[in-house]
Design a protein that fits this description.
267 residues; mainly alpha; 0% strand
Length: 267
């Protein structure tokens, strides 16, 4: 029974991810420009022709159109189907990893945010308030649902832990921003609170590993760029993607990494 339910959940989440990925393409393009994600309807950026419903099927439509606008034949970036496919794949993987759990909705939201804000940060080196700030009440609502777990076992201490971790990460990033303004933007500070909420609900190990993994991975990447001559010590490297990467390391492997470290130091 459980295997059958999981067999339906994974493909359902993957298909849902394809649809969400199509919407994320709109968000990534419009929000940094201060445009509405609702109106006007999607249109070709070259000729302005409105995109028809049958030309808006995730991945499939791009393949059918051979990557070109139906009206003006202008090329359509391969990033659009790539984002849709990646979102579908990630949603499926998250569903497979978590299973039928009340924590699944908040982790799917985190997956969507990871893809969306990573692309925006890489494009414009900014994490827009229009996305980050409204996410706070949504994440809190989903964590309340996960802690309540209707029909299952409630875990209210996890919610309190999430609130403390969210506030702690927000404060830690704010202090780092205050101490070294050039090294971090306020968008990173605001995002830290969101990640802290999710990591805190998952566990203390997730918070600690997720926090340090972001700086470790980001530091390794920056050093690699400098060694390769692609950047200098004064170059600005978007940190949002590494915050997300660290968060996922904390969620997926935080407990195991923490236990390994404590065993290594003999604790």
């Amino acid at each position: 029974m459980i295997e059958a339910a999981l067999g339906l959940l994974v493909p359902a989440c993957a298909v849902f991810g394809l649809l969400i990925g199509s919407f994320l393409n709109v968000v990534v393009w419009r929000v940094p420009r201060g445009e509405s994600v609702v109106r006007p309807p999607s249109a070709c950026t070259a000729c302005g022709a409105k995109i028809r419903g049958f030309d808006n099927i995730p991945v499939v439509s791009w393949l059918v159109l051979r990557g070109r606008c139906r009206d003006c034949k202008a090329p359509i970036s391969a990033r659009y189907p790539a984002v849709e496919a990646a979102t579908g794949l990630v949603f499926g993987l998250v569903a497979w990893w978590v299973g039928a759990s009340w924590a699944l909705p908040v982790l799917l939201l985190l997956a969507a945010l990871t893809i969306c804000l990573t692309l925006i940060d890489l494009d414009v080196q900014r994490l827009p308030d229009a996305i980050v700030l409204p996410i706070y009440p949504v994440v809190l609502a989903l964590l309340v649902l996960a802690s309540w777990a209707p029909g299952g076992v409630s875990d209210w201490p996890a919610l309190w832990r999430a609130l403390v971790a969210g506030a702690a990460m927000l404060l830690a990033y704010f202090l780092m921003r205050f101490a070294y303004p050039r090294g971090m933007g306020f968008g990173d500070v605001k995002l830290a609170g969101v990640l802290g909420l999710v990591l805190g609900w998952w566990g203390i190990s997730a918070v600690v590993v997720g926090f340090f993994a972001a700086f470790l991975l980001g530091g390794i990447f920056s050093i690699a760029l400098i060694v390769a001559g692609k950047a200098s010590r004064a170059s600005k490297v978007p940190f949002g993607p590494w915050m997300f990467a660290g968060a996922w390391v904390g969620l997926v492997a935080g407990e195991r990494l923490a236990e390994a470290y404590l065993g290594l130091v003999g604790l």
